[in-house]
Amino acid sequence: MSSHITIKDIAKAMGCAPSTVSRALNNSPNISPAVREAIQRYAMEHNYRPNEFALSLRNNRSNTIGVILPQIKHYFFASVLSGIERAASEAGYNIIVAQSNEEYDKEVAIVESFRKAKVCGVIASLAKGTYDYSHFRRLVDEEMPLVFYDRICTELNTSRVVVDDYTGAFAAVEHMIVTGCRRIAFFTSPLHLEISKNRRNGYVDALRKHRLEVCNEMIVECDTRVAARELTLGMLKLDKERPDGFFAVNADTAAGILYACKDSGLRVPEDVSICGFSDNETARSTEPRLSMVDQHGEAVGQGAMELLLAKIDGDEEKLVYKNKIVKTSLILRGSTRDK
Amino acid sequence: MSSHITIKDIAKAMGCAPSTVSRALNNSPNISPAVREAIQRYAMEHNYRPNEFALSLRNNRSNTIGVILPQIKHYFFASVLSGIERAASEAGYNIIVAQSNEEYDKEVAIVESFRKAKVCGVIASLAKGTYDYSHFRRLVDEEMPLVFYDRICTELNTSRVVVDDYTGAFAAVEHMIVTGCRRIAFFTSPLHLEISKNRRNGYVDALRKHRLEVCNEMIVECDTRVAARELTLGMLKLDKERPDGFFAVNADTAAGILYACKDSGLRVPEDVSICGFSDNETARSTEPRLSMVDQHGEAVGQGAMELLLAKIDGDEEKLVYKNKIVKTSLILRGSTRDK
DNA sequence: AAAGACAACGCAAACGTTTGCAATGTTAAA
DNA sequence: TTTAACATTGCAAACGTTTGCGTTGTCTTT
What we know:
Chain A is α/β, with parallel strands linked by helices.
């Protein structure tokens, strides 16, 4: 009883051929209005739903988009996924989701499973350990629409969505300068990463614009809370030369800095300003709460989906790759001073 | 060239019928070993992959499991999704993911889309606004394997995975008692929710076990940081009667309590102990960091997947519904005292 | 009135599998 | 040597669609 009605059933009931039913349901002009309406009404009444497998088999493509995330639990990626899901849902696509757990092998396996599932597009962010891109290259060779976000692959000609790291960092650092900071330290993740470079450039250019010295000792590779705490305590002992502002690559690091400052008896933001990249729950949970650069993960996800749809739908545009840069915004909270 | 090879292609190449190829690849005993091996070798060499659509069409079921989340961005749900993804991947299933955004209408639409996609099972957690369960009831009526997690539906006969709220709360409160607390307040989400009731019971029973008074003024409905802060400030003014311990329904609330205590000049944990339910980033970001009950979201996800697979695979077991209760664990950090 | 045009519909193949059954060929038993 | 049994393979239908092409039938045109 629950078994779904098919086009053949309708054809039998209406005394016509399946092809007629198909055309009627697809509003083909070759079907007389009377018949068409009768068929459509019957289909409606009997809650006809086309069988997706049959459609997929015939069109050789599913109605599905594959999404690869390095880690689902990570707030930024969860946000991106949320944005993708929303956009996909609006466009009538399903998404199948898989996480690489930052493992290259898993990433390769995922790509393979997506090919098997014949998804009609892939949205991906690279695992940290991925240096070989041949699995993605195969997708590109097969003309599978592919969009990278955040951790993009610069070797491949695909659309990309990235966060405006440079401008975000620039704005944050400039805000600290304008509100009185003169010696701003920068805690960064490894500088071979694209995002680190861009954020560093933003930091440096903001200093230069305001004619502040760019001092190499102020730029340190440090992106965990524990390390940040230690490092900060050391830097604050510099007494006269101590930083009066910190710009951190992520919220955890910023939190470590914050607590080190408080331990050192410094007031935040009166004595020291702190600002970080990548807003998340952590930044909203300290006291004072941390001023942060918001990456707008959901916008990234939505942008990726839009680019992907453009490639899926577009015909001649299929070969044109576009980049989208999602603007960040500076969320001012208690760890920086007001103007 | 990239177009995949089919069974027919192999048949043509080997000079036999497609059915023979099919049987050979499926290791049917009716095929002579020589032919079978030749075919398998050919298939292997030509990287044959069965067409999933054709399989799905024939079997009338996809190789996919639908997952419904209230909010992907929420840490607990992201953790659950991560667990589901891992388990599904190991079992060879794809997952399609959709979020209800706590909206009833969206949830209904998702269920419908899952039916269209003919997923072979559904894992779901209810949206807050869902009081009518007919969309899920339809799934059950159609014998679609269905498992609820966390926000379960008690009206329907399905497998369920829940967190052991009672024991988790009991353990947390008992720990505070054992380490010296005598007046413990409980900040809870609305008590009509199942989880609230269970946690309250754990709280009450722990007090009773240790012959402490259960005082109604100590149980307050409050589950946001801002409200918690206000409320705590008020309670701490009770001077002699002030609480010396707080148990909060979530991390945000616990953070609000923490900062109110510090504002009041009380030391945590020396003067006041604080413990919360649902560990997440927030709890790891305060100073001191918050002792929390960890819900083991990934275990919840994995458990849900296991129950679902049991229903999908099991034959006579298909109608047996099982419950799984995931044990919590108490993570002791700086907001409670040691024994 | 005959022929052409056109509207409306049906036939059948195709997408890639699986599987019940029939059709071979081979071997063993009588 | 005949027959039965069995191993091996092929045929064809089925899953639910879509679509090119052929077939009707009606209407307009000359």
